Amino acid sequence: MFKKILIANRGEIALRIIRTCKELGIPTVAVYSEIDRDSLHVVFADEAVCIGPAPSNQSYLKVSSILSAAQITGADAIHPGYGFLAENADFSEICAESNIKFIGPSPDSIRKMGDKAFAKETMKKVGVPVVPGSAGVVHDVEEAKKIAAEIGYPVMMKASAGGGGKGMRIVWEESEIEKAFQTAGNEAGAAFNNADLYLEKYIENPRHIEIQVLCDTHGNFYQYGERDCSIQRRHQKLIEESPSPFITDEVRKKMGEAALLGVRSVNYEGAGTIEFLVDKHQNFYFIEMNTRIQVEHPVTEMVRNFDLVKNQILIAAGHPIEDKPLDPRGHAIEFRINAEDPEHNFRPSPGRIEYLHFPGGFGVRIDSHVYNDYVIPPNYDSLIAKMIVWGTDRRHAIRRAKRALEEFKIEGVKTTIPFHMKVLENEKFIEGDFDTSFIDKHININ
């Protein structure tokens, strides 16, 4: 087992990893920017090292500072969490060269599956359904027009190295191609330092459903069922649940088998997520793989009764997966509590938390790094807590979620709690009748 693990992240995921390490008896090192000095991950780690000022490119994205922190503290492993350097193949490679274990997939797997165009071709070769589109990167506007004419409008321009809705544009007709190519490319270049784009058929009003996978170096490739992440705004997930209220058992089985085909094809190691779009006829299409732990991993943990982060660490240390897949039990829903103002276009709402009360009770889990009098900085993602509820079935989970959100009190900053309450009161959501366009069609946030 590792002697010491450095967590190259912040916020709730850093605290989640620290808790797991403590239960495994592994000392931890937190890294933090100057503005995060009072964050809970700094408080609860065994050691903490300041790695720079607030801007992430001078702290959490600065590889040299993170590696120096690992070396001076004697850490022999680094857990990247999600975001920041979690899917950076070069960072994974540099860790290996420095004799520090990167808790995640190999650099080769990250490169293969992190490049969306390459990942799509990889999946296609092993028989996983993919959305029709370009065979790889689209190099110019004329090539984009030709491919779009072949597969039919509408189409989607997507950043090859992207995620989180950056570098994406829907194109409804040929006259829009040139502008979409330029704006999506510029956005992708600014966000990912890679302006490459690929093009695929735009599936209208789909479900966004993903499969959790876990793979070790002992020949074990497991899938732990699906999460329905269709409640989104501008491609940003807001509510996730498992199991999906939409797909049938037959489709569920086929999606799980497809996910395993994909990870076996690249000899994947660690935790990952295979993401699909599912149309109204329950045809599913691979769109991308996230080669890291997901923000929404707790819903899988709740219905499958296993610790994903613990198994990540065990796999990286050379152990086989400890928790085999169990049949799902009940229903779990995760709500992202962001410091945002839903009434003003979800504008970020950093500032001091003047009063905070977390909900509790059976079947309610809170993953958070904030506390009374904590100052939410303006420099990072606005996620301040995840509320995960479990129920014996979906109706029960919804009732429990409404009760818990009523108990959830935060004063001093605006949050997405009122938005989540509106969703839970919507009949379409209650009936499980929704897709990725749900918020635009059914939720009045003003």
Structural topology:
Blueprint: E1 5-7, H1 11-24, E2 28-33, H2 40-44, E3 47-52, H3 63-73, E4 77-79, H4 89-97, E5 101-102, H5 107-114, H6 116-125, H7 141-151, E6 155-159, E7 168-171, H8 177-192, E8 197-201, E9 207-215, E10 221-233, E11 236-242, H9 249-265, E12 270-278, E13 284-290, H10 297-304, H11 308-316, E14 331-338, E15 340-341, E16 347-348, E17 351-352, E18 355-357, E19 364-368, E20 375-376, E21 383-391, H12 394-407, E22 409-411, H13 417-424, H14 427-430, H15 438-442
**Could you name the CATH class of the largest domain?**
Alpha Beta
- Uncertain residue ranges: none
Large-scale geometry: globular
Mean pLDDT across all residues, rounded?
95
How many individual domains?
3
Write down the CATH topology of the largest domain: D-amino Acid Aminotransferase, Chain A, domain 1
Q: Which sheet architecture does the biggest sheet show?
A: 8 strands, antiparallel
Number of strands: 22
> Strand order, biggest sheet?
13-12-9-10-11-14-21-19
Work out the radius of gyration: 21 Å
CATH architecture descriptor text of the largest domain: 2-Layer Sandwich
CATH superfamily of the largest domain: ATP-grasp fold, B domain
Question: Cα distance, first to last residue?
Answer: 52 Å
| Strand content bin | 25-35%
Q: What structural class should be given to the helix and strand makeup? A: alpha+beta
**Percent helix:** 25-40%
